[in-house]
Each structure stands twice: as C-alpha cells, then as structure tokens.
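User: Hey, quick favor. My workstation is busy. Could you predict this chain's structure for me?
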Amino acid sequence: MVTTFRGGQNTFPTSVSGGTIPDANRKIDISEWAEALEPRRTPLLTEIGIGPAIDQRPFYWGQSSLVAVETTLGADHTNSTTTLTVASGAGAILQKYMVIELTDYVAGSTTVLDETTREIVIVTAEPSGDTAGIARGQSGTTGLAHTSGCRALIIGVAEPELQFHTIAPVTRGSQLFNYFQRFQGGVKADIAAQNMPTWENPTNPMLAGFELEQLKQKYFLEMAIWRGGRQAGDPTTPLGATMGGLDTFITTNVTNLNSAKLTPRVLEAELRDLVKTVEGGAEGIKLYMSYDTAAIFDTVIDPIRMATADATALSLYTDKIRFRFGTFDITTSHNCRNGVIYGLRPKNLSVRPFKGANWHMSEIAGDANGADHDQKFISGDFSLMVEREKELFKLYGFDQLLDDYSSPWAA
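Assistant: No problem, here it is.
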C-alpha cells in the first residue's frame, strides 16, 4: 500500500511487535522498482523548453497584428447609396482610393457567398468614422442593393493620376501580459532517518524524496500551461499569483461545437479557416489532444479502417493528417483536458523564468540551526508567453461519448 506523508521522515516505528522491522525499512529486491516508478511526463514543457529570464513582474509583450483587409457592411445599402457604412470600428482600415468588392452571403449562411450580388466600389473620400464616400458600380460591375452584414473585401488601391498619395491604415497590435507563479515543494528528515536506508532508497531517503519532488514540480508547471488561469497575487491574505495558461491567451480562433459531434468536415473547416487567415499558413501547426479525445479523433477521421499493418506491427491510430492546404502532426498528452483539440505552434510558446529564480534549491540545515533534522526545498518562478496568438486555435465542446460515433470497434 502506498503511504503519503508530509510531516518528515524519522526512525521511530509506530508499531513494533517482537522486534519486527518496520515495513518501510525492510531491504528487499528493488531491481524492478525504478522501472515501476509512477511517471511525471511533461511532453509540452519538454518541447517548448525554458526561455530567457524576465526581470519584470508581471511582464508584458507586444502582440502584433496585420491590418485587416476584410470587413462587413454595418447597414443596408440601396443600389445608389454613395456613402459606404462598415461595421463598427472598421472605418479605421479604409483609405481614400481603395477598391472594395461587395458580395452578399446566401440567405441563411454566413460563409457561402452569392456571387450574383458582386459589386466593386471605389472610396472617393477619406473615411469619417465608419463611413466613406464611394463611387458605385466600378470595374465593369453594376450598382446593387446590399444588406447589413454583406462582405466588404479590399482588393486594392486605385489612385488617379496627378493626385497626392493618401495615408494608409497601420495596426500597432496590443500588449499582453502574464503573472509569474512560484512553484515550490520541500522535504524534511531527521538526521537518523537520512542514515537509515530503506528498500526504495539504499542511500539517503531524504535526497531520493527531494529528487521526486523536483519531478512533481516540473509536472505542476506543465499543468499550469494547459489549465492555468491568470490572477494577481494578494500579499495581505497572502495568496500567490497564478500564471495564465493556454486558455487565457487563445481567444481569437476558438470554436464551441455545443455538444455536436466532431466530424472530419468540422475539423477541416476549422483548420482551413485558420490557414486562410494567418500569414504562416499550416507550417508548424500541431494538433494536441488527450488520449480520450484522440480515441474519438481516430474514429472520426477514419471510421472504417481496422488497422494498418507491416510484417510485425499493427497501427490503430492516426499520427498525421493531410489536407490539401497543409499537413498536421498529432500529439497526445495525458495532461491535456478532455474534449479539447488545440492547434499550436510550439515556437510561439515560451516558458519564461524570473531573473535569478529558475529552478533552484534552498535548505535549512539542522546543524546550523540547533536541530538534528534538515529541510530541502525546490522552487522556481515561471510564466507563460504566447506570441502570435492568431496563429493558434482551440476546438472544444464536442460530444465526448465515444459510443456515439460510428466505428467497427463499437459494441
């Protein structure tokens, strides 16, 4: 039976009958023990690594953004309206002499365009707020009525001759920030306990326990990356600050399926939309999911495949998926939340230590403090930095019951 304790190790058995050696001090064969140790795997943390130190708490970084080239109409327009009104705030992306293609969506759809409604207009005056003067029916098209929500796609600038150049819109991005979280744990042991080998630890049991504590704290850091929420510390309570994880920063490309089934079409659409809107395309994007989610994913992607085989092995899983617009590697992690598929570029993520507070050890030595017991602590201050957030995505909220998906493996 596993025994967990926090009070420190000592050499005084609590129950001894007839000179029996306490179970924890029996020396038995441990040749297989190391291989049986519970793992503390941290695949995402291992992949992204630890970045350069930061000397500000909290720390900020710039999140750049490309100027938008597409918006929607903010009001209905007749076939002769000479003032273009775009969605709230979108007037900032307009420029005098811009060429804009207006196309309504098919009734009932927000993705399928009705090409019979296509019209090209040219901005004839500097925008004022979210409106600008326009010339209708340009470039061989005809002035048409358009409804609010109509797509307005910028397709160029056409400056007349002998005119002064006009000022283009510039996007300076925004500032993101995160707090540092202090991860720490410690062990203590009486000096006698440190010199009494156990079946698990033939040398110093305290040092072995300290090594395991280091692995546990590293695991906690990875869990904060996956699941952490950003919160300032409160020195009066006191409460320590917590760092924001992936869910704190991935906010642009987030889709909630509202309990609908995950399907290849949904997954493809999510990835295709992402690739269309980011400068880097599909290169370097990996799909991350839990083992349970991966079981659904494998069934959805190829529901009729029983296995692929070579001379000595059967493969019952998918580790790469190819679409016409890109190839995506698939990574599973037991630390990832169930029911979520993340699209991440590891190079966009960085774990940052605070200056001078990367993983380090501190101790309270008994011989220096009038005691015969020692204490050792591992601690580190870390935070997560997410760059180019618009290149990442999160798909969640889909049906998580594997039996709801058609599969030859179903009962």
